[in-house]
Amino acid sequence: MKRLLKFTLAAVVASLIVACTTSPTGRSQLNLFSGSALNSLGAQSFAEIKQQERVSDDRELNAYAQCLADAIVAVLPEQFQGREWEVAVFESDTVNAFALPGGYMGFYTGIMRVAENEHQLAAVMGHEVGHVIADHSSERLSTNLLISGALIGADIAFSDRTPQQRAMIMAGLGLGAQIGVMLPYSRTHESEADEIGMDLMARAGFDPREAPKLWENMSRDAGSSPPELLSTHPSPQTRIRALTRQLPEVMPLYEARLASHGPANCPRPAKLDRPSGS
């Protein structure tokens, strides 16, 4: 039994070592899932969202979203440029956007209105694409898998306790995993995606000085929010400070782009200034 346990532990350790990767910012990651599996999940999720949401047929809004997407894709690492990215606009007041593994981007008209110009919307989509190129989906799934395995092992280890004791122990371990592991990981991913997104928007010809302004807008409109410790995202104030600190690093990239190719040319449609449904 001990030999089997040692062999199992050795196999787990070996798999974790093989699965260790590095994010675009140099952070160590654990990725247990293949790219093809994530791409399939991305395609499935995108198809489901298109069934659940109203896909906009507005030519001007779709052209705006496509222009932004094309500009960002053009500066991605080579492995992400070799695929055809599918872009959709969803008629919804939801203030959100997303990018999925496999080459999918979605813009909700709610975020297209909140973003006051193309630079701010590029900051949003640069952030979302940052999640994709940093393999955050794989890292999150991998972490969830390890935590689930650890909790199952703990449940077995405490099988000699009374049902009430086991319930209390497992509840405590689950809460500890959520607050001590999952939420910090999520906030790390969000901050890293902000950093990557700001780099991408600058290289694509969008003014990175608009990224902190976007979060000032979001903070003004957000109202009350949970404490950052208990949130999956950093607070708007934390994001504004981090993005502002990053400006000296990315402004030379933006200025080099202006000198070589000029700014990105994706003008925001005037209709986005009108209230939804008008």
TrEMBL record:
Any single GO CC term annotated in Swiss-Prot or TrEMBL for this entry: membrane
Pfam families reported in the protein's UniProt record: Peptidase_M48
The Peptidase M48 domain, residue ranges: 79-245
PROSITE patterns according to UniProt: PROKAR_LIPOPROTEIN
GO molecular function, one term: metal ion binding
Transmembrane segments: none
CDD domains given in the database record: M48C_Oma1_like
This protein's record includes keyword Signal: yes
Co-factor(s): Zn(2+)
Matches recorded under InterPro entries: Mito/Outer_Membr_Metalloprot, Peptidase_M48
Coiled coil: none
Signal peptide limits: 1-19
Region ranges (Disordered): 217-236, 258-278
Cofactor remark from the record: Binds 1 zinc ion per subunit.
Family from the record: Belongs to the peptidase M48 family.
Protein name in UniProt: Peptidase
